[in-house]
Amino acid sequence: MKTNVRFIVSRAAFYLFTAWAAITINFFLPRMMKGDPVTAYMQKNAGQITPEAERALRILFGLDQNTSLWQQYLDYWGLLFSGDLGRSFSNGLAPVADVIASALPWTLGLVGFATILSFLLGTAAGALIGWRRGSRADVIVPISTFFSTVPYFWLGLIAIAVFSSVLGWFPASHAYDKGARPAFTFDFVAQVIAHGTLPALTIIVASLGGWILGMRNMMLTVLDEDYVTVAQAKGMPNDRVLWRYAARNAMLPQLSSFALSLGFIVGGTIVMEMVFSYPGVGKLLLDATTAKDYPLMQGLFLIITLAVLLANILADIAHAVLDPRTRQTEA
Fold first, then answer.
1. Residue 330 within any structural domain of the chain
2. What is the 3-state secondary structure (H, E, C) of the chain?
3. pTM above 0.85, yes or no
4. Which pLDDT score is estimated for 266?
5. Looking at 95, 112, 136, which one is the last position of a domain?
6. Which of 105, 192, 214, 248 is 20 to 30 A from 41 in CA distance terms?
7. Does the keyword Transport apply (predicted)?
């Protein structure tokens, strides 16, 4: 019991410090860059901004030159605790939280589903291939690895050329048909599924090889362990030895990679969203960078950072559940 408490306290302290450091860097980084959002906004609207309006904008963006940097930092924390991420001047001064919220479901739905499905399929396939080492199933490894080495944008363009332009099975771009209005109806959901199929399949095909190869290699190592040999000598069913003993321990290193993948789901796959013109967070980040919309960039970096931290917390919990030795070592 004491070991579990020490483990929880130590990990909580580590992640709280990491979150503070990430948020602090997120505050100072835009202020270290050349220019600021108010200057960029004034250049975009030359001659239309009065000095009084500029002063109001600087106060709005937390860049008041009459306020010390330390006070700006404290004000930034106050805004964060109130859920205010600032205003996006590239979206008509709309709240950054609202802009991100409009793009986040598309990324979570598409990239999240594809990443989780790729992990499950790749881990299961890698476990089976490793269990049946030396069989014909080994041919899957070089084939899947080959697709993982193909540049992602090229794989996406090939998918569009074959399945959209030639066969006409799926739409080539966007999240739904032009002119359609988002609504929770059967027709609109069908459009979303049709538009999301190609980019989802591209993500799965591109990432499947890494999961298969990693799990297969770990299975080859685990199968030589004594506890697997003893379990087989006791006459346990092969399925139980495979999934409860071998695969359970072999997948522990996979969890760390999967946690990072889950964290970066929020960031989206920028190249994928560019190729398929998908309205997700990745494309939003690219547009914000192009427009030098620092508040929106800052909000996106913060959300991505917190998502990665949360994913790592979940990975730590999974490690502790699957391998009790982790709790003892950390404590």
1. no
2. CHHHHHHHHHHHHHHHHHHHHHHHHHHHHHHHCCCCHHHHHHHHCCCCCCHHHHHHHHHHCCCCCCCCHHHHHHHHHHHHHCCCCCEEHHHCCEEHHHHHHHHHHHHHHHHHHHHHHHHHHHHHHHHHHHHCCCCHHHHHHHHHHHHHHCCHHHHHHHHHHHHHHHCCCCCCCCCCCCCCCCCCCHHHHHHHHHHHHHHHHHHHHHHHHHHHHHHHHHHHHHCCCHHHHHHHHCCCCHHHHHHHHHHHHHCHHHHHHHHHHHHCCCCCCHHHHHHCCCCCHHHHHHHHHHCCCHHHHHHHHHHHHHHHHHHHHHHHHHHHHHCCHHHHHHC
3. no
4. 62
5. 95
6. 105
7. yes
